[in-house]
Amino acid sequence: MYFSGISDRQSDRLTRAVLLAQKQKDNQLLHDKVHLVTQQLLYTLPSRLRLLPEEDCCEFLFYCYETIEHYLSSYREGNLPYLGYITEVVRKRSRYFMAYKRTQRNKERALLESERKGWDEPDLESCVAETRSYTPLSFIATVEYSMMPSLFEQLLNSPKHHGDDHIRLDAVQRRLQIKLQQGVNRKRFLIMLAISPHMTNLHLLEEIATLLEVDTRLLNRYLSTAEQQLKKKQQCKQRMEGTCNRHFRRIMEIQAELNQCVDEHKREELKSLLSWTERVHRTKIEQIRSMEYHLSHSQISLLLGVPKGTVASSVHYIKALIKECMD
Asked: Whole-model pTM?
């Protein structure tokens, strides 16, 4: 019904649990349970409803995280179950989220253009800037791809570095940190980070550096260099998005012309053209959403100098380890 993978019985149980949590405000266990379910819904619903691409769902959850308490307290029993209420929230907030992302991209582009004016060396255009305000780094130049195995070894064998003082790990993260002190788990974790380096480098750089007890700059250089491999995929996606935007503008133009046209023969031609353009536009959107924006196992194998089977097994085992430690 709401494309969430939750049955009607489970939806009713969730609604009753939320209403009970509102009455029993001291029941922390129940509150944590409904809070976690709400997090899962905010993460999965945007993709299932085809409102956002899957790679943006994690960022959307972060965007809504601070307001989860408001959703839990403001829900009132009525025509909509709690699942339907959260579905409507996702529909509305996804529009604000997309507008927020556009604003952020424009700000970052303007900032980058203003900083470029002061660059004297042409090779600095390949630098990678940290976009999070808490990151103490400014610009770090990437190294050659041939240095990736060396960086990989340095992260495996580097002496313990306690990271930033303002990063504090909780008990669950400490348990994972102890597991990652074992050589084989550490190696698997570093391999997994290189598959989608842009996510860690953008959102979790300092937290992961503290978790691995490595220097933040060294981890940034490792991830930034791997991230350069994603450049071609990103450029391909941007070209497709540009084509998709042109199709959308063409749809608007045809609809405006159709509204003003009185000639029946011309209207039929416009309707046929509109149908074709809408079909192409939908196809492009589906292609963009299905694009995998990460490095393949073969690319990681060549980049780090490890067998492809090692990459596949590392991803499998490290996912199980993270699930075991952090649920």
From this structure: 0.45
